[in-house]
Amino acid sequence: MKSLKVVWISLFDSLRDLLPIIVVIGFFQFAVLQQPIPNFGEIAVGILFVVIGLTLFVQGLNMGLFPIGESMANAFASKGNIFWLLCFAFALGFGTTIAEPALIAVADEAAIVAANGGMIENSPPSLNSYATGLRLTVAISVGIAIMIGVFRIVMGWPIQYLIVVGYLGVVIMTVFAPKEIVGIAYDSGGVTTSTITVPLVTALGVGLASSIKGRNPMIDGFGLIAFASLTPMIFVMGYGMLV
Amino acid sequence: MIHILTDLIYAIAATVWDVLPIALVIFGFQLFILRKPIPNLKKILTGFLLVLLGLGFFLEGLQAALFPLGRLMAQQLTDPVFIAGDDVGRILQWWDYQWVYLFAFAIGFSTTIAEPSLLAVAIKANQVSAGSIGTWGLRIAVAIGVAIGIALGVFRIITGTPLYWYIISGYVLVLAQTMFAPRMIIALAYDSGGVTTSTVTVPLVAALGLGLASTVPGRNPLLDGFGLIAFASLFPIMSVLAYAQLSEWRNRRSNKPIT
Q1: Residues 119-148 of A with CB under 8 A from B
Q2: Domain map of chain B by residue range?
Q3: What is the pTM of this model?
Q4: Which chain A residues have a beta carbon less than 8 Å from that of B136?
Q5: I want to staple B117 with a disulfide (CB 3.0 to 4.6 A). Which of A152, A198, B47, B74 is the partner?
Q6: Which residues of chain A have a CB within 8 Å of the CB of B233?
Q7: Cα(A220)–Cα(A153) distance, integer angstroms
Q8: What is the tens place of the pLDDT at every residue in B15-69?
């Protein structure tokens, strides 16, 4: 009985999270564009799916993704082997990015931009190899980002020093990179961090900061995502210069 | 109705495919490097299953309900015929696009509130800070940042000013705020830039950018359609830092004895 009540409450929470979108779309559809809602039944089912999905996701987050991230962070901290910890950080960043659907879409568009700008030949094989190269570049850059971020947590460096270096990197690369790639590069920072990566990486960072002596999980534990959205910009502009 | 169900199965299968490399990394390191059994393995596997099912439902629901409507809306709102109103054929200025700015702001705010990865970070931040960072406070601060960012990004596409001007001035502002913000919030604020833009925000915002870049005269969709995501991941950093500064300032003021 009690668990049923919990399910109702979390379903209600998800509905509340979704409500702003429904209001915005409803307002623009009726008041501004003054058009009826097409396929009302399908939309109602879709909204129901979104609510169920969000509820299941939050349950799974607390049962699966957060505990595994934290228990691995603890295990690595007690093992005390920084080499394997950094390898794990790289593999996690690389592995979660290479299969990211948003990145695949952006890489394909970037290849078209490059072909239009005359940087590469406009044929399917060269478009394909450009897009694949770009995806690998971004995945490697996210791997390096998580690695640097984990190393920062271990060393306890203040995050802003590393971020300043990253910002300077972005500014310098912007000066030299071909104009066509800049927009895509800036966007690629945002698309790399998927819905599964974020909770895992956050739990890893917070878990590490809580199990290493002298680190504060609030000050040191966050920040891994910040690196993961900064390095792709630098690497993608670098890729645009080299290819 | 049947096609929604088959699409749902496809969406879940696609999520499994995305999760595969992550699962390989986690279980590979657990088995070969850490060589320790996973505590509560059954519960964790159930959790993974719930996340997979949840994301499958979530994505399919968005595809069936919100994305088509949102995309159509972005197209209609950026259509020059709608913007010019009765006076078709006149040259449009940047202030003629009020509805587009309002839509950009509203859609940025509302999609961010529904973003599952932001919810995850907010839950974690609430736990770690022992409740002093409220989940709603953080989410609303981030959502306001995204809303302002996307509205400004839309302004940039309409006026055709270079993207890097905005981003570099944004960086300067972020660094200036960092010097004055409470230390506790800095890492979380930087993180909130990256988490805002994933499953819900990116498709709707990309449609808005492409719609505008293909209808505003003199813009190239391939060049000017990009950049909105960059705005949406920079501005939340500022709004979260501002939120922390504001609450610190209010605390200090209320603690000050009345003279």
Answers
A1: none
A2: 1-68, 78-254
A3: 0.89
A4: none
A5: A198
A6: 189-190, 229
A7: 6
A8: 888 788 888 898 889 888 888 888 788 999 999 999 999 989 998 888 888 788 8
